[in-house]
Design a protein that fits this description.
single chain, 134 residues, two-stranded parallel sheet, 40% helix, globular
Length: 134
């Protein structure tokens, strides 16, 4: 973020709604990725940004993909880290490798079981990084 700003660009890193310090959706059962798209457009508009280059990582990848598909005139480019693009269709994730973390941690309690016994540095060094290599 600092390098981007030092290069003369505006760098904005919002929390997705319901994550970090952001407010939760007023009706969580009705929440969707489209909410993140609309939130992004609202941020663009509040800063008077007509077009932006967007970056999404992991869970943030799908919202930037949708943003670029639904509002191409507002997007200069997209970078995604960690999650490949899929043509929007039901069950799009089934094409991923079986051990991909999205599958592994969809099972309730699995992420807690994987990470619970370890401190943050141990998880990053010994669990998260090797899972990426599989």
């Amino acid at each position: 973020m600092i390098a981007i700003a030092d290069a003369g660009y505006r760098a904005i890193a919002p929390d997705l709604r319901g994550y970090g310090l952001s407010e939760h959706h007023p009706e969580p059962e009705k929440a969707s990725f489209n909410d993140f798209v609309e939130d992004s457009l609202a941020i663009f508009d509040s800063f008077h940004i007509d077009k932006a280059f967007v970056i999404g990582k992991d869970f943030g990848s799908w919202p930037v993909y949708l943003l670029s598909l639904l509002h191409p005139t507002r997007i200069l480019g997209v970078v995604s880290l960690g999650v490949p693009f899929f043509v929007p269709r039901p069950q799009r994730c089934r094409d991923l490798l079986e051990g991909f973390y999205i599958f592994r941690w969809k099972e309730p309690g699995r992420a807690e079981a994987d990470f619970g016994p370890f401190d943050v540095n141990t998880v990053r060094r010994n669990i998260y990084i090797p899972l990426l290599k599989k």
